[in-house]
Amino acid sequence: MRKQVILLFTVIAMFGMTGCWSRVELNDVAIVTATALDLADRNKIQVSIQVLRINMNNASGGNATVLFSEEGESILDAYRIIQKKIPRHLNFAHNRVIIVGDKLARSGMSDVIEFFSRYRDARGNSYLLATKGKAADLLKIGPSFEKFTAEEIREEQKAKVIDNVSLREFAYRLLEGGIEPIASQIQSVPSSDKALTSSNNDKKKQNNEWSLALVGVGVFRKDHLIGWMNAEEAECLLWFRNKVKGSVITTMLTGDKRESGKLSVQIMKSKTTIKPKLQEEKVSFDVRVEMIGDLYENTTKLSTNSLKNLETIQLAVEAEIQSRIKSTVKKLQLKYKSDIVGFGRMLHREHKKEWNERFEKRWEQEFPHVKVNVTAHFKIIGTGRINDSLTWEERDFKK
Amino acid sequence: MEIISRHQLLTISIIYQIGTTIIFGFAAGAGRDSWLAVLISTFFGTVLVWMYTRITHLNPGLTFIECYPAQFGKVIGTPIAWLHPLLFLYIAGRIVADIKSLVPTTILPGTPPWVILLFFMVVISYGLFLGIEVMGKLAEIILPIILLIFLIEVILIISSGVVHLENLTPILDKGWGRIWSVVWPLGIIQSFGESLALALVWTLMNERARVGRTMILSSLFAGLFIAFTDAMAVVVFGEEIFKRATYPLYALVQAISVSDFIAQLDATGVIYFCFMAFLKTYIYLFATIRSIQKLTYARRSRVFIFPVVSIAFVLGMTMAPNVVEHIAVVQKVIPYDPLYLSLMMVFPFLLFCVSWIRQKNKTQQN
Amino acid sequence: MGDYILPWQSSVMLKHPWVLSAFFLIIAILLSFLTWFRRTRHEQEEDSSGNQDRNME
User: Fold this and answer.
1) CB A192 within 8 A of CB A209
2) What DSSP string runs through A273-331?
3) Is residue C48 a part of any domain in this protein?
């Protein structure tokens, strides 16, 4: 009797282990790789998704992805309407990028974050980007290198040429006091002359004549988009976060015939420390930037072999770094009044009592008035593969 | 008679005490300082657990609940003793309800919950049928595996580049108030007060004298583990998201993404939560059955397995219509609930005092 | 009154938290009679056979 009971238990348990109840076969699944969200008329949201077309018979040619777009009252609503058009089950787990159009970003990102934080499949790792204009148009552009544009965008974001945010980071910045959210700005740019001259717009886009580029950063205050910063300023923001991977700084030297020209250095390593200083009611920040890099282009007539000249070059680069950072911060303070670098958060960490009592609620008003001092140090560690110009010699100019 | 070794007790306790806290995020109300709240709870909790072991020591040969009629007399002691299996049954039902919300939300959305729970309960019944020695051996084998998986998870999270240690600062941001509100009484009850159910296992250990030391060791270890996992969650998500997430440690596993290659490890996280919940439910039901057996002077405990498991199943299925209410009960009702407080803290304390005084009198007489 | 029937449910726990405790207390007292009954029977058997182990299978 006992053996039969055990056998019965085992057989019942066996049925449970196959996990068949909630199964979804791979060819019943439509994998969403990119999502574009726009504000449509009458407060509806237009959701466009790029779905990977899984070809079981390895047919080449044609796009690997298909685009679907629908309007709905909310994101979930639009998604349901799209689901009705497709025979397969939509799966968001591989969604790599979320692009938000201008109007929607300006009216408030909270709704977007809401959906993606609650929904089961959505991951915090997806990158969030913003664009001027309609996001849906960007998804129509064909990929140049990877199989689909979402992958390209993701690779570009990972290369960290411009500051980027994942969904999780955006939500973190939204909720945390003392730092405001940003999103990379992505636009379609013509990749060759052909794009500018031919007339048929849609065909152009399919034929790889346009491509997607990260051109700047969108500045938010709380969850509303308020403006854009261009690529140079966006690079500065990256310096603040210590996430530099090969920035290039070009500076011009002016002076006599010998000294004038352009210098380009590539930054290898950068370390930025922000120290808040509190003196009675006045807040100020000392920003200290330390960078090391290689000199790769020198169009001045200075010989890069002499230590004195290297010092001049270093000073010039330092001045350039300082001025760039200063102008970026000033723009943030005066034009946008939004602390996207996180000065407030630094203040919170160092002086938590004062932050909690005085500044937490009023940081938006306080931020434009804080003083930011920048000191930059730059060290050249190499001048590339040659140590002096191949085409001239400095003593030719000493006359 | 079943006997489990010291090491088996240690592993069972560790898994039991880590238990379901890692599903819902222990002390999430303290935000950034939750790890600190956990460490403080561990300190007080370990003292509480030590007190339970001392009670068993002062009443040799008797299981914990038999001490009540022995020390307080049959009239008062027996109802108090009977409250224990009822409480354990209720808590077991709570854990079943936890699983009922966790698994469909995360990995098996289409499966009806009763099916998931049915299989769960069948396996538990089988385990109860076989006895606690088997569970001891299982825990011995699985604890190293669980710790290894956790270690790998931590390494992967760090490699995913989402860790920001600065999120833990500023420490004690909003002061001690937040921390105390989480430590007392919920923090202590949740993992350490619940160790009361383990008390029914202690008399089955082979080296009775070492029970105290074993339990202290396991409580400290479990506390450190939970503090560490809370700290990890804050470091990755920041304080605000940690407070708002329903399953923060599950979200932690979701965040793993190393070189775009190792990602989507959700199912691993859920499986190990399920095992923790399994062991905890098993111990509660074992404690219930053993208590009933002792209190009814029954000769065999197996006859109680089916009714107890069925009642736990029904309790779990009907307990809460949605996860929000379920969590609300834990946060709002349980800290002030007279049952929990009295059975886990007040009565044991009285029992301890009485047993100790009686023991002193006896030695004085000798 | 129908509210009080299933006191372990979260809706009841949230509105009337004492119901569960009262419910358990009542059941505990009722079951204590069972213990008392079984105990006297157990002691009678012990006295009569004089060689009884408390079997803990």
Assistant:
1) yes
2) EEEEEEETTEEEEEEEEEEEEEEEEE-SS--TTSHHHHHHHHHHHHHHHHHHHHHHHHI
3) no
The CA–CA distances, whole Å, from B351 to A352, B86, B339, B343, C25 equal 46, 19, 16, 11, 19
Q: Taking CA atoms, what residue in A is nearest to B168?
A: A349
- Domain range summary for chain B, segments of one domain joined by +: 6-365
Instruction: Locate B94 and state its tokens.
Output: 């709570």
Q: Both tokens of residue C55? A: 């079997």
The size of the B-C interface in CB pairs under 8 A is: 82
Domain that holds residue C6: 2-43
Rounded distance between C-alpha atoms, residue A363 and residue A365, angstroms: 5
Give dist(CA A228, CA A149) in Å, integer.
Answer: 23
Asked if A216 and A340 count as a contact pair (C-beta separation under 8 A), the reply is no
Based on the structure, what is the number of domains in chain C? 1
Dump the DSSP string for C34-49.
HHHHHHHHHHHHHHHH
Report the predicted TM-score, pTM, of the whole model to 2 decimal places: 0.84
Provide DSSP, B28-48. Answer: GGGGGGHHHHHHHHHHHHHHH
- A–B CB contacts, 8 A cutoff, strictly below: 58
Q: What is the CATH number of the domain that holds A388?
A: 3.30.300.210
pLDDT in tens, chain A (399 residues): 788 888 887 887 777 666 666 677 777 888 888 889 998 888 888 888 888 876 655 544 456 778 888 888 888 888 889 888 888 888 888 888 889 988 888 888 888 888 888 887 777 888 888 888 888 888 888 777 777 788 888 888 877 777 778 888 888 888 887 788 888 888 887 776 554 554 445 554 555 667 888 888 888 888 888 888 888 888 888 888 877 777 788 887 776 666 677 888 888 888 888 888 888 778 888 888 888 888 888 877 777 777 888 888 888 888 888 888 888 888 888 888 888 888 888 888 888 788 877 777 888 888 888 888 888 888 888 777 777 777 666 566 554
Same domain, A338 and A374: yes
Closest CA to B286 of B61, B53, B130: B130
Q: Parallel, antiparallel, or unpaired: how do β-strands A248-253 and A261-279 relate?
A: antiparallel
**For the structural domain made of B6-365, what CATH number should be given?**
1.20.1740.10
Cβ B319–C9 below 8 Å, yes or no? yes
Would you call A22 an interface residue with chain B, using a CB distance cutoff of 8 Å?
Answer: yes
Interface test with C, best of B82, B202, B311 (most C CBs within 10 A): B82
Q: Do B257 and A125 touch (CB under 8 A)?
A: yes
Q: Using an 8 Å Cβ cutoff, are A136 and A48 in contact? A: yes
Indicate the DSSP class of residue A383: B
**Cβ partners under 8 Å of residue A378, min gap 6:** A265, A290, A291, A292, A293, A314, A317, A318, A321
